[in-house]
Write a structure and sequence with these properties.
Layout (H helix, E strand, L loop, with lengths): L8 E7 L12 E7 L13 E3 L2 E2 L4 E3 L7 H4 L11 H23 L12 H8 L3 E9 L3 E4 L4 E8 L13 E3 L4 H16 L10 H16 L5 H11 L32 E2 L1 H6 L7 E2 L9 H4 L3 H33 L11 H24 L11 H15 L7 H11 L12 H4 L30 H21 L22 E11 L5 E16 L9 E10 L23 E6 L4 H4 L11 E3 L5 E3 L11 E2 L10 H9 L1 H8 L9 E6 L2 E5 L5 H8 L4 H6 L3 E3 L11 H6 L5 E4 L12 H10 L2 E4 L23 E3 L4 E3 L4
Parallel strand pairs: 3-6, 6-8, 20-21, 21-22, 22-23
Antiparallel strand pairs: 1-2, 4-5, 5-18, 7-8, 8-9, 10-11, 12-13, 13-14, 15-19, 16-17, 19-20, 24-25
Length: about 800
């Protein structure tokens, strides 16, 4: 029988942006997904598995069969918001494309976070793909969950008052946003590369995770050539302009749609998502704000702080792009061709597009490659800059378009200052190798890897033996040369001849091709060390934390996490005591999101599941199928059992982050102020059962209400134990979450507190789209500013 060659790609149609754009800019694009054999009962591949299970409604939706002839010959299903099978196709295609981009830049395959399981179960989990749930829950959210090794996408009802391009109350699917898929996949890939980056060891670390995911998602816009050409035409070639020219020029105010000036789609992230929440625009932007070296000193929220890093990267990108096209624009003008918006010659627009796409690919590769050159823990923006400069100069020594110079300049103008460098010169920013540090590093003999590829997916036993061998080799090497690797030799009182435990955390060869065509083969390894330390060294009963450090070989240097600060006389103020009440370390507390009583927003259905009081049925009944349809995953049974429990549901929806909030009690001159962050029931329960809890609550003078006043954030028992007369503040808004703040809790608060101030009640001049809460009534001690409220506590 005649054999046919296996195809290289599987072309699949997706939204280039999201459904809100319609067919404009050729919003239907085809992604050439690297071909792999898939099951007929859903896109279950070697690295990702799409499972369409809706937790909120407890049902499965019919899986798409991408092998079906009707689908294969038409580039997949055509975009349709009402067909869950297209949703599955889109997340599979965009996720695969994101993986491909990483693997091209890194010169190796991506691997997911290592399992914490032991023995055979660990090996079995290591072989399983990343799970993707297109319709996991009813919530305006999407996230990567390291513990579940899954990416979960939500769906929600658009704002009823200002939904943008959506209908009021229309169901919006986060899995249909190209940006959101790429963003969450980047979180998963980065977690597999640098597991310690998920720990908020500094204000830069969580901000970096968000910024890096935004950078990858935004650069993927430039793969959409039709959209790039359209933007070039409407901007006159200057891609960084936020507003574009309309189809026709308006005389005065625009009178028809063709005269409206649209937003630049290439620099906005999550347009439909942002509009549906009533934000009148994209969720975030690549442009950020004009360069200001002082912003970074004041901004701490991860997304806002990450926006500074995103703006620096895209500032450098747009500057390099302008350098590359100025000669083309000069030639066009010299020949009498128009270069104004809407009038570029198609050939010129196409040439500008090619330069934009090429520059975007170069910048994305630079940003991704730098991860291999970052320290294994506690990433800082300045260290990322050093990693970028080192990684790129190793592969592209000459840098004819001065990418590195523009990156350095953009980072400097936004106040991103690397530590331990003498200047912003390229030479000073490069990581010092052993030769520069005058600490020659002996060769590591015995590593086993191929000159072309070291991981054959068909040879599991060979791969496992090679991995085990390389781990032993690296471990022996590290124990023999801890000083040269910058690792700790031990603590005081310990033998200095035997170093602390060293773990080869990650190790892999990398294969890269430089612009001169040369193949560069290197081996990168990250070593970690950790020990338990007391938060307060002088307190014998002090809580402990993991003190983690490490080094990246050959190009990294040691970056230790900071030791915990003392809580007595905090901030140098005599008599100021800060008590850390939460979060708990016990997983049983972390998983308890809902209090056992007083639940209003979530109710229990007949089978005991937690469901939304405003539940959405996203699809028609004809798409529903039984759980038995999804048989393509070997550990499906255990996975479904895990997701099926109401505890695991809450655990997933809140990403466990709320219950890991820092709960602090400030005490000064007889006054007590309680700040519980976003703590939910399990966090409260972990410390409310202690002997001192009742005394603590009975002496509260100021209470920052937890988690925006949600139903599961402040237990009734805690509120009842607080004495009357305390002051309270709440950061909240009831749009687009009408159940927040929780009315019953607010009613009881107003009965007990001397005053309750809501952030959405503060009127901000000029902010016409700001959330509007009830009329502001200030109690004693409160005063209001232009966009804030103060409370003064008399001592």
């Amino acid at each position: 029988m005649t054999e046919y060659p296996r195809p290289s790609f599987r072309p699949l149609t997706v939204y280039a942006f999201d459904p809100s754009v319609g067919k404009k800019l050729n919003n239907y694009m085809v992604i050439p997904v690297p071909y792999e054999k898939l099951a007929d009962d859903g896109p279950f591949g070697a690295k990702i598995a799409v499972i369409d299970y809706d937790i909120s409604n407890d049902r499965y939706y019919e899986p798409v069969n991408l092998n079906h002839t009707s689908i294969a010959i038409t580039n997949g299903l055509q975009p349709a918001e009402s067909d869950p099978r297209f949703h599955q196709q889109m997340v599979y295609a965009v996720a695969s494309e994101t993986i491909r981009r990483f693997e091209f830049a890194l010169g190796r395959g991506v691997r997911w976070r290592r399992s914490e399981a032991k023995g055979r179960r660990r090996r079995r989990i290591a072989d399983t793909p990343l799970r993707i749930f297109p319709h996991a829950f009813q919530q305006a959210n999407a996230f990567y969950h390291p513990g579940f090794r899954a990416v979960l996408f939500g769906y929600f009802a658009a704002s009823g008052t200002d939904p943008g391009s959506s209908l009021p109350g229309q169901t919006v699917f986060t899995c249909l946003s190209h940006d959101i898929i790429a963003h969450e996949m980047t979180h998963a890939i980065l977690d597999g590369m640098r597991t310690e980056f998920t720990k908020p060891t500094s204000i830069d670390t969580p901000a970096f995770h968000e910024a890096f995911a935004d950078i990858v998602a935004l650069f993927q816009h430039f793969a959409m050539k039709d959209a790039v050409i359209d933007t070039i035409q409407r901007s006159g070639g200057f891609l960084y302009r936020s507003q574009l020219a309309g189809d026709v020029a308006a005389v005065g105010q625009p009178q028809i749609v063709a005269e409206l000036t649209p937003q630049n789609p290439l620099v906005g992230l999550g347009q439909q998502f942002g509009q549906a929440l009533g934000m009148r625009g994209a969720l975030r932007s690549a442009l950020g704000t004009p360069p200001n070296s002082k912003d970074i000193e004041m901004v701490r929220e991860p997304h806002l702080r990450g926006a500074i890093l995103v703006a620096a990267v895209f500032d450098a990108f747009f500057t390099v792009y302008v350098k590359r096209v100025l000669d083309l624009l000069r030639i066009a003008r010299a020949g009498g061709a128009p270069t104004t918006a809407g009038e570029l010659h198609p050939d010129l627009a196409n040439r500008l597009c090619n330069e934009a796409v090429k520059t975007a690919n170069h910048m994305l590769n630079i940003c991704i490659r730098a991860i291999d050159y970052c320290p294994p823990v506690d990433i800082q923006f300045g260290e990322y800059l050093r990693a970028i400069i080192t990684a790129d100069s190793d592969l592209v020594p000459d840098d004819p378009w001065d990418y590195r110079g523009e990156i350095i300049k953009a980072f400097r103008l936004r106040g991103i200052i690397p530590k331990e460098v003498k200047s912003y010169s390229e030479e000073a920013l490069r990581w010092d190798g052993p030769a520069e540090l005058r600490q020659p590093l002996p060769p590591c003999d015995g590593l086993d890897y191929e000159a072309v590829e070291d991981h054959d997916p068909k040879k599991r036993e060979v791969n496992e033996r090679r991995t085990a061998h390389n781990k032993r080799t690296l471990k022996q090497y590290a124990y023999a040369h801890p000083k040269e690797l910058g690792l700790s030799r031990g603590r005081k009182g310990n033998s200095q001849s035997t170093p602390m435990r060293i773990e080869p955390h990650s190790f892999h060869p990398i294969y890269r091709i430089g612009p001169d065509g040369r193949l560069v083969v290197e081996f990168v390894a990250e070593f970690l060390q950790r020990r338990r330390e007391k938060i307060d060294p002088k307190d014998s009963k002090s809580l402990k934390f993991d003190f983690v450090g490490g080094s990246t070989v050959i190009f990294g240097t040691v970056r230790y996490l900071g030791a915990g600060r003392r809580l007595k006389d905090a901030a140098g103020i005599p008599g100021l005591l800060v008590q850390v009440l939460g979060p708990p370390r016990d997983r049983k507390f972390l998983s308890r999101m809902d209090p056992p009583t007083g639940d209003r927003f979530l109710r229990l259905s007949r089978n005991g599941r937690a469901v939304s009081a405003n539940r959405i049925e996203p699809f028609e009944k004809r798409w529903r199928v039984g759980a038995g349809v999804y048989r393509g995953l070997r550990d499906q049974k255990a996975l479904m059992k895990m997701i099926d429990s109401s505890t695991a549901l809450a655990f997933a929806l809140d990403q466990v982050l709320n219950n890991t909030s820092l709960v602090t009690l400030f005490s000064y001159r007889g006054k007590s102020l309680l700040f519980p962050g976003d703590a939910q029931y399990g966090n409260w329960q972990s410390w409310m059962n202690t002997p001192d809890a009742e005394t603590v609550l009975d002496h509260i003078d100021f209470f920052k209400i937890a988690h925006h006043g949600s139903h599961n954030a402040t237990p009734k028992s805690a509120l009842e134990k607080m004495r009357k007369g305390f002051a309270a503040m709440i950061s909240t808004q009831n749009r687009p979450w009408p159940s927040i703040p929780f009315e019953k809790m607010l009613d009881r608060l107003e009965e007990k507190a001397s005053g309750v101030v809501r952030s959405d009640s503060i009127k901000v001049a000029g902010a016409t789209n700001a959330p509007k809460g009830p009329e502001l009534h200030l109690g004693a001690g409160f005063s209001v500013g232009p966009f804030w409220c103060d409370y003064t506590l008399a001592l």
